[in-house]
Structure prediction request, 130 residues.
Amino acid sequence: MRLTLTHPKLHVGPRSRPEADIKILSAVGGPPVSVAGVLVDSGADYLMLPKHIGIAAGLPMGRGTRVTINGVSGSVVGRLLTGCVVEVEGVTMTIDILFHPSNRSAPLLGRNAIFGLKYLLLGSNAWYRP
Prediction:
């Protein structure tokens, strides 16, 4: 499968890496929470954000499933919230978000959002040519 993201911010950000701007739509009817420069990471399973972003969006942080996040420097326990409404570079989708307990973690746009973009922009099988 080949996925080409054509938005200029998705190719190279100011730090020479693929980045996207996202918005988390508020669960309580408030304004969306914007996150700029989210690293597009095909090695990450989920959209991963620091916990404070979920709190700012009014998401029910205590309701999510506890998930162990394994990284290069060790493991921590985060929260996986299902069915969150997110806008990625102007495309709105409902996906799961993994919230990291540290407010110092870098936001990552993982495969669930990348495949969501592919499905919404191309259709379920538009990339496949027999």
In short: Strands lie at 19-24, 33-40, 47-50, 65-71, 74-88, 91-100, 108-109. Confidence is low (pLDDT under 50) at residues 1-5.
